Structure formats: C-alpha cells, structure tokens
C-alpha cells in the first residue's frame, strides 16, 4: 500500500524584512547575509500569530469536509510551543472543525519532529487504511536582536495530510537515522529566544548527514544518481547547500548539475522566509513542486531531516502519478511578493511587542492582521483565538 503526503500547504504572516537592510543596520556587508548565509528576506511574525494560528491558517487551505471526517489523528510538531501542558493540536480540533473522535498530540525534538510525525502517521495508516492524519510543522524561529542568529530567524507553518494512495509523495520504507546528545542549539525553559552555537551546529548537521546518507546507501545499494532532487532541512539555505556539496562530491557531473539545479528550486521559498524549524524541510518540498519544471511521476526525492540536540534522518519518497494536478506553478511566490516589507525599526517594534509569559490578561489589536485565524491575546492566562 502506498502511504504518504496527499496534500501540503504553507502559511507565513504578511510581514517581512529585507536582509540587505538588516545587514546595513547591523554594520555588516549585505553579501554576508545574501550570499554567505543565503537569505534575501525574512518572515516577521506579528504578535497576533503564534504556532496555533499559523497552523490553522495553513491547514484550513487544504482540508475538505471529507478530509475532516477521515482525520482521526493530529500530530503537531513544534519547538515554539505555547503551553507546557496543553498541545497545540487540540486547539486545531476546534478551530478547523475536526470531529471529536480524534487523537491530538504535540511532539518535540527541535526541527526534526515533522519527520517523526510523518513516520508515525505512516504506521497509523498502515494499520487503519481509511484514516487520514494531519501533520503540522509550525514554528517561530527567534533569536536575540543583533545576535549572530538574528539573520537566520523566520517562521510559519506547513500542514500535510498523510493518507494511503497519496496524491503527491509516497514515503518509502528506507529511513536511516542517527541520534547523539549534543548541545548545539537549545531553548531553556522560560526563554523566549534560542541559544545556539551556530558553527558547531552546522558541523553536527553535516556529520549526521554523512552518517545517515552512508548508511542509506549501504542498506539500499542506491547511490546519488538514483535521486532526482535532494531536499534538506534549511536553518539558512547555505547550510543545505553545504550538505548537497557533500552528497555530490563523487557524482557524475551531469547528476551533480541536475541536483544543483533542482536545489535552487528547493531553497527558493526558504531564501525569502528564513528558518521554519520543523516545517523547513517540507517548505523545500512545496518550493520544489511549485518551481521545478522537470519533475515527473516516479522520480525519487531524497529528504534529510535534522533537529538540534541532535537527531538526523534520511529517507526517500517517490512522486506519485498526478502529483502536480493541484500544484499551481509559483503560487506561493505571489503570496511572498504581496507581503508588507517593514523597516528595521518597525521589525524591532514587532519583535518586542509579543505576548510575554508574565502577561495574565492582554488584548492584542487584530485589525491589521489579514489572516483568517489570529491570536487575539490572553485572558487569565488562557489564549484567545479568533476566526475572522
Ligand atoms: N560575502 C560573502 N560571504 C560572506 C561575507 C561576504 N561579505 N562575509 C562572510 N561571508 C560568509 C562566511 O565566509 C561564511 O561562509 P561559510 O559558512 O561558507 O564559511 C558565512 O558567510 C557566514 O559567516 P560567519 O562569519 O561564519 O557568520 P556568523 O559567525 O555570523 O554565523 C550562522 C552565521 C549561520 C552560524 C549564525 O547566524 C547562526 O548561528 N545561526 C543559527 C543557525 C541555527 O539555527 N542552527 C541550529 C538549527 S539547525
């Protein structure tokens, strides 16, 4: 039975920042951000969006009444959780109008967990072929103002419907994974911003990729020529490019050129959004689907997932017949182009205006946020969501 990604959609808020302007404000050569890190724009998350509202905005675009009837599990992957106890998934049951006969869980292992969720969903559907599982990867990638991590912020949510006979990608049973307890990136309890040893993290990411990709090749007998595109978790797009260079170092030049060409389609949206944490790898899938003109049914995509702390995994998926029937060429580019570009001062104001843990009751102005689902503030520490 083929099981995999039946539908995929993405949401990022209506605000962004130009990386060249940020570089100027921080007295940095703009090419460091544009070329050295590989980011041209960054999503700015207003206080009226959090992981729940962003997830609802992403999922709402793809779910039909029939899907809602069949979904019996919601797996919410995030490392920007909004509660120490209640899962982000249970808010979605109400906001999206899902039935009550549904299992709702939040999962955490840094940026890796949407991949874990897809595999858990795969197992669930293998046992319950008529089920559908909603997998969410939603995050607000947030570092301190004027820190080294600042140019690698971003945010948004990817929603994927996992089912049998999927329209888009059949997940293969070929995953290799590798875990080790390291401190490359973490966010202690009570901290709003992540702490990161960026150079170390990049090295761990690349070392884990070597481990899992070698084991994958040993297990399957497939070499790099078997892949039609390689997708990577993209904390910043240059990091994925470094992993791609490792993957293709011994490849035939035609294969290397093809994979390098497709990687530009993979990273196009991330380049204009920044880090998405859990959703990043799957934004790359959407970006490839909407921007490549060379994809065909049956092609094999390689996916490298990484979550600091750290977990790495490599697996593959095969494009399904008719994978492109609901994919509109460059559709999301139009959404990105329509965003409002903030000045650096406006971005800093937005950055500083989010709800704090200590806010017991605070109402947010939702009138300037054009999204359907918004976070309206807290009342007695209870989060308030509004459907416009
Ligand atoms: N033109 C072109 N490239 C330039 C440049 C210029 N003027 N100035 C610098 N660069 C290049 C550097 O050579 C370097 O390239 P390399 O990585 O290929 O060596 C790159 O830009 C970054 O410069 P560097 O000095 O290493 O940057 P930094 O110390 O400010 O750190 C990050 C950059 C990405 C490590 C930092 O932003 C970070 O830690 N981000 C968080 C990453 C993260 O979240 N990781 C965990 C999740 S997986």
TrEMBL record:
Query: Which parts of the chain are coiled coil?
Result: none
Active site per UniProt: 79 (proton donor/acceptor), 111 (acyl-thioester intermediate), 233 (proton donor/acceptor)
Q: Which residues form the Hydroxymethylglutaryl-coenzyme A synthase C-terminal domain?
A: 269-357
Any transmembrane segments, and where? none
Q: Which UniProt keywords apply?
A: Transferase
What is an example of a GO molecular function annotated in this UniProt entry? Answer: hydroxymethylglutaryl-CoA synthase activity
Matching entries from SUPFAM superfamilies are given as:
Thiolase-like (SSF53901)
Biological-process GO terms, alphabetical: acetyl-CoA metabolic process
* Residue intervals of the Hydroxymethylglutaryl-coenzyme A synthase N-terminal domain: 2-164
Q: Which residues does (3S)-3-hydroxy-3-methylglutaryl-CoA bind?
A: 29, 143, 242, 275
Transferase is among the record's keywords: yes
Entry keyword Transferase: yes
- Family recorded in the similarity comment: Belongs to the thiolase-like superfamily. HMG-CoA synthase family.
Indicate what this protein is called per its UniProt record. Hydroxymethylglutaryl-CoA synthase
Native source species: Ligilactobacillus araffinosus DSM 20653
Its taxonomic path starts at: Bacteria, Bacillati, Bacillota, Bacilli, Lactobacillales
């Amino acid at each position: 039975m083929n099981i995999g990604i039946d539908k995929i959609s993405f949401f990022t808020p209506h605000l962004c920042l130009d990386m060249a302007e940020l570089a100027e404000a921080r007295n940095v050569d703009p090419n460091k951000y544009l070329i050295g890190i590989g980011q041209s724009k960054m999503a700015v998350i207003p206080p009226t969006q959090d992981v729940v509202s962003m997830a609802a905005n992403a999922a709402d675009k793809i779910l039909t009444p029939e899907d809602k009837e069949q979904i019996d599990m919601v797996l919410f992957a995030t490392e920007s959780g909004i509660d120490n106890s209640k899962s982000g998934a249970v808010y979605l049951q109400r906001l999206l109008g899902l039935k009550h006969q549904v299992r709702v869980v939040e999962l955490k292992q840094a940026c890796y967990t949407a991949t874990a969720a897809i595999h858990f969903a795969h197992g669930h559907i293998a046992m319950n072929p008529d089920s559908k599982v909603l997998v969410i990867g939603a995050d607000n990638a947030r570092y301190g103002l004027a820190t080294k991590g600042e140019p690698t912020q971003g945010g948004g949510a990817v929603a994927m419907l996992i089912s049998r006979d999927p329209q888009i990608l059949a997940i293969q049973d070929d995953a290799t994974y590798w875990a080790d307890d390291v401190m490359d990136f973490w966010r202690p309890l009570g901290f709003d911003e992540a702490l990161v040893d960026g150079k170390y993290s990049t090295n761990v990411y690349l070392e884990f990729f070597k481990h899992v990709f070698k084991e994958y090749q040993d297990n399957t007998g497939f070499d790099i020529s078997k892949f039609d595109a390689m997708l990577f978790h993209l904390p910043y797009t240059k990091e994925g490019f470094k992993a791609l260079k490792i993957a293709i170092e011994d490849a035939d030049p035609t294969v290397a050129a093809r994979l390098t060409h497709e990687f530009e389609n993979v990273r196009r949206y991330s380049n204009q959004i920044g880090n998405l944490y859990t959703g990043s790898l799957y934004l790359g899938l959407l970006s490839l689907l909407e921007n490549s003109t060379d994809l065909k049914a049956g092609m094999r995509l390689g996916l490298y997932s990484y979550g600091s702390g750290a977990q790495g995994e490599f697996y593959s998926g095969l494009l399904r017949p008719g994978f492109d029937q609901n994919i509109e060429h460059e559709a999301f580019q139009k959404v990105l182009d329509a965003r409002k570009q903030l000045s650096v001062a406006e971005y800093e104001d937005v950055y500083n205006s989010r709800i704090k843990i200590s806010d017991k009751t605070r109402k947010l102005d939702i009138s300037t946020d054009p999204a359907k689902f918004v976070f309206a503030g807290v009342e007695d520490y209870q989060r308030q969501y509004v459907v416009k």
